[in-house]
């Protein structure tokens, strides 16, 4: 039986570093080629505004909580509890799909959650990864039985 108290997701430094490298590379490539001064100032002002808005939004945002209860894995986002159905699990990330079968839009364009190893505590990640692996194997076994 799995037991995991709700754990708040932290920002992934891996994904933040990746986006910073991409942004810095793009800015450097734009500076390498001729760019009018107005565009250069506009680019920096837009980047500054984006960073400020992102920081304010990040600071004011309510934490996202992930956990396991007697009904399975869940994520609590903005006061709404969504059930998770894990698709892939490895040592770096867990990929889960929201388990909603009632909406046509969810069938056409499902919502996925990616939980990186550095989003939660190491022990919580190991418990969640173990649960995800068991859920994936059980779903494959059930699918094989129906065929």
Number of discrete domains: 2
pLDDT < 50 stretches = none
Strands in their spatial order, largest beta sheet: 1-2-3-4-5-6
How large a portion of the residues is in β-strands, by DSSP E? 25-35%
Percent of residues in helices: 40-55%
Main sheet makeup: 6 strands, antiparallel
Shape field? elongated
Q: What Rg is obtained from the alpha carbons, in whole angstroms?
A: 20 Å
For the termini, the CA-CA separation is: 28 Å
Describe the protein in words.
With 147 residues, the chain is of the alpha+beta class. The chain has two domains: 4-10 and 63-146, no CATH class; 13-60. Helices cover 50% and strands 25% of the residues. It contains four helices and six strands, in the order βααββββαβα. The chain has helices at 13-32, 37-60, 104-108, 122-146; strands at 4-8, 65-69, 72-77, 80-89, 93-98, 112-116. The protein has a six-stranded antiparallel beta sheet with strand order 1-2-3-4-5-6. β4 (80-89) and β5 (93-98) form a beta hairpin. The longest helix has 25 residues, at 122-146. It starts with a strand and ends with a helix. The mean pLDDT is 82.
């Amino acid at each position: 039986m799995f037991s995991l108290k709700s754990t708040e997701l932290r920002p992934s430094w891996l994904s933040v570093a990746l986006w910073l490298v991409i942004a810095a590379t793009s800015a450097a490539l734009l500076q390498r080629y001729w760019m009018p001064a107005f565009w250069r100032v506009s680019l920096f002002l837009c980047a500054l505004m984006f960073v400020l808005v992102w920081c304010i939004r990040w600071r004011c945002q309510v934490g996202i909580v992930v956990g396991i209860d007697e009904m399975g894995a869940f994520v609590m986002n903005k006061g709404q509890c969504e059930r998770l159905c894990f698709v892939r699990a490895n040592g770096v990330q867990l990929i889960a799909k929201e388990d909603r079968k009632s909406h046509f839009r969810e069938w056409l364009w499902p919502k996925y959650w990616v939980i990186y190893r550095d989003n939660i505590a190491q022990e919580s990640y190991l418990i969640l990864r173990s649960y995800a692996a068991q859920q994936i194997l059980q779903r494959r076994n059930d699918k094989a039985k129906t065929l």
